[in-house]
Automatic annotation (TrEMBL):
Membrane association type: Multi-pass membrane protein
Segments crossing the lipid bilayer: 6-28, 64-87, 94-111, 126-152, 164-185, 191-212, 224-242
GO CC, alphabetical: plasma membrane
UniProt KW Signal keyword: no
Family annotation (InterPro entries): TM_pro_TauE-like, TSUP
Family in the record: Belongs to the 4-toluene sulfonate uptake permease (TSUP) (TC 2.A.102) family.
Protein species of origin: Clostridium chromiireducens
Protein name, UniProt field: Probable membrane transporter protein
Keyword field: Cell membrane, Membrane, Transmembrane, Transmembrane helix, Transport
Pfam families with a match to the protein in the record: TauE (PF01925)
Protein localization: Cell membrane
Length: 244
């Protein structure tokens, strides 16, 4: 039953990834945490994220802006190292509690989000740096660039532009964390075996997601993702508190 649950969760996570360009880590991290430790979930999702982000970046290559990708990628990388160290030494129950709060907060931000009309509006560099580094810490812990997603979505003119830029930044993060996880010993034989077993679920989720995306309204997808994140994040947080 556990393997079936993990397989279905992976399909759902990458179904969402194919449609929105992100969300796989939020969904996978929330659902997997009911069954396995976060130290397994994060590196497994990392391995899956590399090829899926490559695919989306190539698909949306005309929408990628290096002026957006380069500075945010550098700031993201600056926060990944402390986040990775917390992942290696942190208490798993505490990590799950924090993850629950992050997931719900991300969902509420998506619910109240309003796109910035003036795409040339300048942003406070201190604020932007804080977003990038904090996102890096969250990425090191959970693979989640939640604040980064919120920022880029506000300054994107369309879905393709958002997908291209966010996935390109995530790809830089993925490659860096892959070698960092190897160096710190987070990636091991158990993770690679589990990744191999769940690989078909990623393929199924991506194929179905791409097909559904062409005919589904963006508002509908947004509502489904928000509902799923709020429910899973709340349950995860409450469950972690009860286990103390």
């Amino acid at each position: 039953m556990q393997n079936l649950f993990l397989f279905i969760s992976t399909v759902l996570a990458y179904f969402i990834k194919a449609i929105t360009g992100f969300g796989n880590t939020l969904v996978m991290g929330s659902l997997f945490s009911f069954m396995v430790p976060n130290r397994l979930t994060t590196p497994i999702d990392l391995i899956f994220s590399i090829p899926t982000n490559i695919y989306i970046v190539w698909r949306e290559r005309e929408n990628v802006s290096l002026k957006v990708v380069v500075p945010l990628s550098l700031m993201l990388l600056a926060g990944i190292i402390p986040g990775t160290l917390l992942l290696k030494v942190g208490n798993d129950r505490l990590l799950k509690s924090i993850l629950g709060i992050v997931v719900v907060g991300m969902a509420l931000e998506m619910l109240t989000r309003k796109q910035v009309q003036d795409t040339n509006k300048k942003t406070n560099p201190v604020f932007l740096t804080a977003i990038g580094i904090t996102s890096g810490i969250l990425a090191g812990l959970y693979g989640i660039g939640a604040l980064l997603v919120a920022y880029i979505s506000r300054y994107s003119d369309n879905k393709g532009q958002f997908r291209g830029n966010i996935c390109c930044i995530f790809l830089v993060d993925n490659v860096f964390r892959f070698f960092l996880y190897l160096f710190t010993g987070i990636l091991n034989k158990e993770i690679f075996i589990t990744t191999l077993i769940l690989s078909p679920a990623v393929i199924i989720g991506m194929i179905v997601g791409v097909k559904v995306d062409s005919g589904m309204k963006e508002d509908t997808v947004k509502k489904v993702v928000i509902a799923l994140l709020i429910i899973s994040g709340t349950i995860l947080f409450v469950k972690s508190l009860l286990n103390y």
